[in-house]
């Protein structure tokens, strides 16, 4: 965000940054009741500025969860055919419950949610009520702005106008969509350029030889894993992580078997397809 608003103090909420590149904890807010107009404006600003925002000690219901999402847009549906997450009693809310009997866990690889959709989700709001002991089950986040900014000028030039196929079948099986998106996109709210290449769904870049497209895709995906671009979030019971799917990727760490990690996620529909920068 440019201009004076970027430096203006917050008046309703508190915003404590977690790292120089990504993440902030939002305080002085109660998500179990409707937010004031000023709170909504400030939460949106904090989301745009920090890519992923966290809330602590919020014992929210499905209605509270959906209300927070709907300040940003309509809730959306998962486009994957086979997923580790499950339906809940509310079609707008997915259950993220994993325990000793789980065959796998959702999100245990660097990714952005359902980039295989023609219009991928704007963001996701994950609420956890049950957390494994001993610090297990953290989630990692990476800034795709920082990853883009750190590329060489030569690589930035090379990537101009390039697209990549995001193949949902690789993750969620037959019947899941595939879509090509620009590799460098401009965020519709912040105006910043970011890399948009999903390590779980992209195997090559379009428009060049297969060898070249695979090699460059692998290099970019590896580049995004640098710790300098990342933040690791430690959950507590009744924490919330709300990430911007357009500029931030995440990774759910599967280190807590046979313990239980349990919560719910609401997804917000994207408004526009990723736009080339
Ligand atoms: C996800 O990929 O949406 C799950 C993230 C998590 O469980 O931490």
Total DSSP helices: 6
What percent of residues are in strands?
25-35%
Tell the overall outline: globular
What average pLDDT do the residues reach?
A: 95
Strand order across the biggest sheet? 1-2-3-13-6-15-5-4
Helix content: 10-25%
CATH class of the domain at 4-107 and 118-135 and 232-246 and 258-268: Alpha Beta
- Low-confidence segments, given as residue ranges, are none
| Major sheet attributes | 8 strands, mixed
Set down the secondary structure blueprint.
Layout: E1 14-17, E2 24-27, H1 37-50, E3 52-55, H2 62-70, E4 86-87, E5 94-98, E6 123-130, E7 139-143, H3 144-149, H4 153-159, E8 163-167, H5 169-172, E9 178-182, E10 184-186, E11 193-195, H6 210-223, E12 230-233, E13 239-244, E14 248-252, E15 261-268
Parallel strand pairs: 2-3
Antiparallel strand pairs: 1-2, 3-13, 4-5, 5-15, 6-13, 6-15, 7-12, 7-14, 8-9, 10-11
The protein binds succinic acid (SIN).
Report on the architecture of this protein.
The protein is an alpha+beta fold. It has a domain at 4-107 and 118-135 and 232-246 and 258-268: Double-stranded beta-helix (4-Layer Sandwich), CATH 3.60.130.10. Helices cover 19% and strands 26% of the residues. It is built from six helices and 15 strands. The chain has helices at 37-50, 62-70, 144-149, 153-159, 169-172, 210-223, and strands at residues 14-17, 24-27, 52-55, 86-87, 94-98, 123-130, 139-143, 163-167, 178-182, 184-186, 193-195, 230-233, 239-244, 248-252, 261-268. The strands form four sheets. The protein has an eight-stranded mixed sheet. Strands 12-7-14 form a three-stranded antiparallel sheet. A hairpin with a 6-residue loop joins strand 4 (86-87) and strand 5. The longest helix has 14 residues, at 37-50. The two termini are 16 Å apart. The chain binds succinic acid. Residues 96, 106-107, 113, 124, 126, 139, 250, 252, 265 line the site of succinic acid.
């Amino acid at each position: 965000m440019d201009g004076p608003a970027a430096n203006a103090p917050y008046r309703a909420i508190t915003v404590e940054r977690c790292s120089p590149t990504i993440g902030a904890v939002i305080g002085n807010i109660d998500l179990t009741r409707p937010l004031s107009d000023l709170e909504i404006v400030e939460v949106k600003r904090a989301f745009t500025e920090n890519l992923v925002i966290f809330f602590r000690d919020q014992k929210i219901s499905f209605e509270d969860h959906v209300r927070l999402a709907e300040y940003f847009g309509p809730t959306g549906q998962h486009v994957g055919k086979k997923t580790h997450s499950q339906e809940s009693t509310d079609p707008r809310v997915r259950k993220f419950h994993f325990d000793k009997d789980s065959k796998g866990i959702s999100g245990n690889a660097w990714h952005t949610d359902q980039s295989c959709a023609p219009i991928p989700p704007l963001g996701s709001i994950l609420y956890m009520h049950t957390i494994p002991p001993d610090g297990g089950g953290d989630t990692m986040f990476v800034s795709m702005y920082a990853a883009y900014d750190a590329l060489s000028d030569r690589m930035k030039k090379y990537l101009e106008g390039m697209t990549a196929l995001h193949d949902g079948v690789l993750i969620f099986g037959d019947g899941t969509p595939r879509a090509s998106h620009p590799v460098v996109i401009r965020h519709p709210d912040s105006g910043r350029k970011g890399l948009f290449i999903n390590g779980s769904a992209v195997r090559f870049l379009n428009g060049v030889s297969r060898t070249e497209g695979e090699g460059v895709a692998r290099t970019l995906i590896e580049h995004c894993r640098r710790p300098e671009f990342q933040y690791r979030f430690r959950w507590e019971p009744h924490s919330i992580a709300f990430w911007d799917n357009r500029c931030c990727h995440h990774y759910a760490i599967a280190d807590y078997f046979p313990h239980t990690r349990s919560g719910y996620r609401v997804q917000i529909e994207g408004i526009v397809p990723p736009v080339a920068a």
